[in-house]
Structure formats: C-alpha cells, structure tokens
Amino acid sequence: MKNRLVLAALAIPVLAMVVSAQRPADAPPTAPSGKPPDSVFIEDLTWAEVRDLIAGGTTNVIIGTAGTEQKGPHMVDGEHKFVMEYTADKIARSMGKTLVAPVVTYVPEGSWENIGGHMAKPGTITLPEDRFVELLVSAGRSLKAGGFKKIWFLGESGGNRTGMRSAAEKLNALWNGAATAYWVDDYYTKAHAEQNTWAAKYLKVADNEVGNHANILDTSELLFVAPKHIRKDRLTGNDYANNGVSGNNQGKSTPEVGKALLQIKMDLALAQIKRMQAGTEQPVAAPQQQGGGGGGGGRGGQGGGGQRPQTASLEPTMHTAPASATPTKAPDTVFIDELTWEENRDAMKAGKTVFIVPTGGTEKNGYHMVMGKHNFIVAHSANLMARKLGNALVAPTIQYVPEGDPDRQNPGAISLPSPAYDMLLDAAARSLKAHGATEILFIGDSGGNQQGMRDVAAKLNEEWKGKGPRVFALTDYYEGGREHYRAWMAAAFGYTDDIIGSHAGISDTSQMLHVRPSGVRKDQIKPWGGPKDSGVSGDPMKATAEIGRMGIQFKINAALNQYKTLKNPPPQRGGRPGQ
User: Fold this and answer.
1) Would you give the distance in Å from CA 12 to the centre of its chain?
2) How far is 311 from 76, CA to CA, in rounded Å?
3) What is d(CA 518, CA 497) in angstroms, rounded to the nearest whole number?
C-alpha cells in the first residue's frame, strides 16, 4: 500500500541511485554565522546568528505576553498579539542589543469551569496562572542557558501581570545574580493611566466614557498596527448588552490616535527599563494599583467588556453568548485569532466545531535555517488541513514545546518540557471545549511534541468519555508523514537515509523553502550542514521548494488518514495507542 501511495504521489522523474555520503571528517568544528537580517525576533534568526549576536553583547531578551481573547464585535481575538509584536520590536530596537522571544498567546483569561468574563465569548483561550508562570520560568531558564543575561517581561493584558511578576521573582531567586529577570509593569499599568489623561485632554473623552476593554484606546492601537484586523463596519461602540466592549466613542478611534497611545506605552516602558538598568529601580517592583480604563488590556479573566461574570453553565458559549445586532461578515481565514468573537461564534454555529491545535518549536536548525522553522511550517499545514476538512478552525500555534532540559539550551532555543507542555495542551483543549468544540486535533511538527500530545489526548478522552469532545493526537502528521516523505525521496531521487537525514536536512529545508523562503539563508546552505556544530543531519544542498511542497502534503494526508481511521476504525483494527 505504501509503495502505491509513493508512486501515485510521484511528480518528479525517478533518478539514478545516489551514492551515500557523510559530513567530511575535515569539516570545521564551527564557523561564523554571516550577516543576520534586519530583525530582532528570535524566530526570524538562525541559532548561529543569535549566538554571534550574544557574543557581540546582545544579551537582553524581551518575552512579550499577549493573549487570545474576545475584543468586542469589531476587533479580532489576537489583538494583543499584533500590538505586542509591534511594540516589542520598537522597544528592542530602542534598547539596543536586545532580541525578542516568540510572543506568548496562551495566558490567564479566566476559568473554563465557572465561565465568565472573556471566557464567556467563543474563541478565548485561557491558561491558568500556575501553568502560565511555569511557561515563563521555563522560557527564562532556556534563554539564560543560551547566553542571555537580562530577561524582560512585558504584558499586553491585565491578567498577565501577577504571573509575570511571579515568574521574574522565581527566576531571580534561582539565578542568584547570574542573570536577572525584570517585570516592566509601566508598559501596562502606568501607561493606562497616562493614556486616559491623554484621551481626556486631546479627545475630550472622560474616564467613564473611555471604558476599560475593546474601547477607543484598544481600537486605535490596532487601527495603527494592523488595520486589516478591524471590522470597520462594526465600529458602532457599545451598542448592545454584553457585547464585550467597555466604553464608547468608537467614532474617535483613528490610526493617528493609536500611534500616539502606543508611543506613551513604549516611552514609559523604556523609561522604566532605563531606571532598572541604572539600578535606581528594582527588577521586580511592588505591584501598582490598576487605574480606571486603558487600552490594550481589559481585566484578564474578569473582563468581558466590564460586564459581571456569568454563572457556571453546561451550555457551550457558542449558544450562551449574546446574539449580534447585525450579521457578521468574516474574512477568508480559519485562524481564531484573526476572527472576532462574533465571527468565531457564527463559524461554530455553522458547523466549524473541529479545532486544530498546532505545536511547533523554537530550536537550532543549522547555520542556514531560522529557529522558528517548526512554527512557520505547522501553521501553514494547519491552515491547509482546516480548509481540507471544511469544518475546522485553528488555534494559535504553540511555539513553546519540549526541547530537552531548559538549563541546557543552544542560543535562542526555548524548551517547555512535560509536564508543563502537557498542561498547556490540556488548557487549550479545555478552553475550546467550553466554547462547544466537538473534536480537538493536536498536530506537532517536532519529534519531542508527540508523546505529550498522546498523553493529553488519552487523559481527556477518558475523562470526557460520552460527555465531551473527542481529542485526537494526530502523530502521523509527524511520524507517518515522515515515513511516506522519505520513501518518496528515495524512489524519486535515490536519496538514502543518511542523505535525507533527520534534522535540518533535505526535508526541513525544502519545507521552509516552500512555506517561508526568507527563513532559509541560501548562502549558508553547505554540504551536510557544513561545520560539525551545525546540528544538521543529512544534506540540505539537495533541498528544493517543490520537494517541500510534496513533503507538507504527505504530512497533511497522513494526519487526515489517521484522523479518519481513529474516528471510524475498521473491524478488528484500532487506532494508534494513546488516542
């Protein structure tokens, strides 16, 4: 059967068998990275570029925390992420010698048991605070192990504040001066107060009109940063009860206002960072009292536009959330963070109750490929899978996954080992169940992700047996797809196993050339990865975008075939263990 699948997929003529080879014995032990691109994001850099930047004094790193939460009828659930990507970039460049870790999109947003606040709206995902703190601590330990000396936590949401503070305290106690973690709370708390003052002075909007969530301030910021994620036909203010907006005057939201408000946040953050660097302010200050309103925040799990939390309900939020005043017009996307909570609700009511949770990774991928390889590939694959299924939506990609011991990492690599990784998957699934998911599909682009997916799926399926969604660990996306892909390359090109390799070789490099060619440094692609410390297995010189396109199709097909088999197992046959 496998041979028939391989031959049917063959799109390139079969070539003569290639003689096996290995990295030359005289390969250099190491090499310089070459000139990095103009980016401060670790995901956009190779490990060697990060290594050389650290050696040159770039020892600051920002961990920005955002969230995936309802933002009223007019803004997408990923508003915090898009704003944080913009501000973290600008702050890092202003600081100098600073890089930015992948933005954290799974944060505290309330409870999936006593549903209220943001969690009462479809699309919100919550990560309980103890699990959130563990994620941040593991990230900090990983980055310190790779050579960073100063870790800076900034947060876009009020519910993130105490978790960042706790993580910074834990890391400083652990490191005892060997490195330092900082909590930059002025970015959020002090900025909100000053933004309100600015709005009163220049927009003539009083505090009680500004509100505290999805308001004129939040809306203006997103209009400046990513206007395509604003539904301009729904900028109608707080026009029906419990719609997720606190405040009004949406007519005063403009990109120009957003630019001014973002500058306030960034200036205050940079001023606090400067004081902390000078030693005139402690790395972790006492918590400030949260003021009235404020853009970019809300109240973590107590938000929902200022409405009181709902009581616990057995009904999913797709049914209990309020009806819209007017019909929604969703864009052509399957990603929940690119949809408003109303659009998520309506997509679910129309039958899109299958959710894909993609897991990637932030790791070393040779001298020629960026550290965010897995994140970019799995997001691309999840999009194609959801569209093939026709009844699926996609959660934000999980970039923090098992990569080994957090205290033994390559420069820029980040590890979230089990059980913390498992608890992140568990939180994502429980959040989606609260909204009405009928099936949850885990896919993972890295080998270390697979066992946690199996374990969480097995645990939740046992717990929810007969009374909840089914959870599928589609490990064939990685394992079965890999087998078919390798068999096809052997048949099509005569490549042996050692030529194909197992990491950052032909397979991975080809997929990146197809999905995100800017993530491959073509001048750094060397036979067998080049230097001995490259971490490459196989020969990336033979990679092509077309091979990558085929590889992704093999992975998706393997995952979907496993999904169908697990849903409807043939007689006398079962699925893979742990489902």
Assistant:
1) 35
2) 25
3) 27
Instruction: Name beta bridge partners: 213.
Output: 246
pLDDT at 231 over 50: yes
The sign one gets for the Cα dihedral 557, 561, 566, 568 is: positive
Is the bond leading into 37 cis (omega within 30 degrees of zero)? no
Q: Which two tokens stand for residue 345?
A: 């609700």
Residue 287 DSSP class: P
In angstroms, the Cα distances linking 98 to 40, 179, 280 are 7, 15, 21
pTM of this prediction exceeds 0.85: yes
Residues 6+ apart with CB under 8 A from 544: 510, 513
Reduced DSSP (H G I as helix, E B as strand, rest coil) percent helix, strand, coil of the chain, to 5 = 50, 10, 40
pLDDT per position as a tens digit, 453-482? 999 999 999 999 988 899 999 999 999 999
Residue-range domains of the chain with CATH: 39-190+266-302 (3.40.50.10310), 333-495+546-569 (3.40.50.10310)
The token duo for 495 is 């490549």
Q: What is the dihedral of CA 479, 481, 487, 488, to 10 degrees?
A: -160
**How is residue 478 written in tokens?**
């990685």
Model confidence at 381: pLDDT above 50: yes
H or E element in which residue 343 lies: helix 341-349
The 8 Å CB, 24+ separation contacts for 21-28 are 21/498, 21/499, 21/528, 21/539, 22/498, 22/528, 23/527, 23/528, 23/529, 23/532, 24/527, 24/528, 27/528, 27/530, 27/531, 27/532, 28/530, 28/531, 28/532
Which of 417, 443, 415, 422 has the alpha carbon at shortest distance from 357?
Answer: 443
